[in-house]
Amino acid sequence: MHGREQKVIPKVIHLCYRLDMSQTIGPKGQVVVPKKIRDALGLKPGDSVVVHQHGNQVIIESAASQKVLKGIFSGLNLLQDLEEEKRIERMR
User: Fold this and answer.
1) Per-residue pLDDT tens digits for 15-66
2) pTM of the model
3) Residue 6: pLDDT above 60?
4) For residue 26, what is the domain's CATH number?
5) How far apart are CA 66 and CA 48, in angstroms?
6) How many structural domains are present in the chain?
7) For residue 49, which of 71, 37, 92 has the smallest C-alpha distance?
8) 3-state DSSP call for residue 60?
9) CA spacing 20 to 30 A to 49: which of 1, 13, 57, 69?
10) Distance separating alpha carbons of residues 34 and 23, to the nearest angstrom
11) Residue 42 and residue 37: Cα distance in Å, rounded?
12) What is the spatial distance between Cα 52 and Cα 29, in angstroms, rounded to a whole number?
């Protein structure tokens, strides 16, 4: 490859499970996530997951993949700013 840049194409692994990977919902609504999927997502016992419904599908994601919003507005005095805006509006 003289004079040409070499392109790196990332390898994409699709996890597709059909009826052979069907699971039974237990009496408490629990479902076992197959080991192959747990390993692929890096899920360990005690990890948190986020469960979504999308049409007729149930999507389970690692909670670690979700952006944590807790505390992002701390120290911004948003309540005081809102109260000040309301006070100014009342004066008009």
Assistant:
1) 555 545 788 889 999 888 888 888 888 888 988 888 889 888 888 888 776 6
2) 0.46
3) no
4) 2.10.260.10
5) 11
6) 1
7) 37
8) strand
9) 13
10) 9
11) 8
12) 15
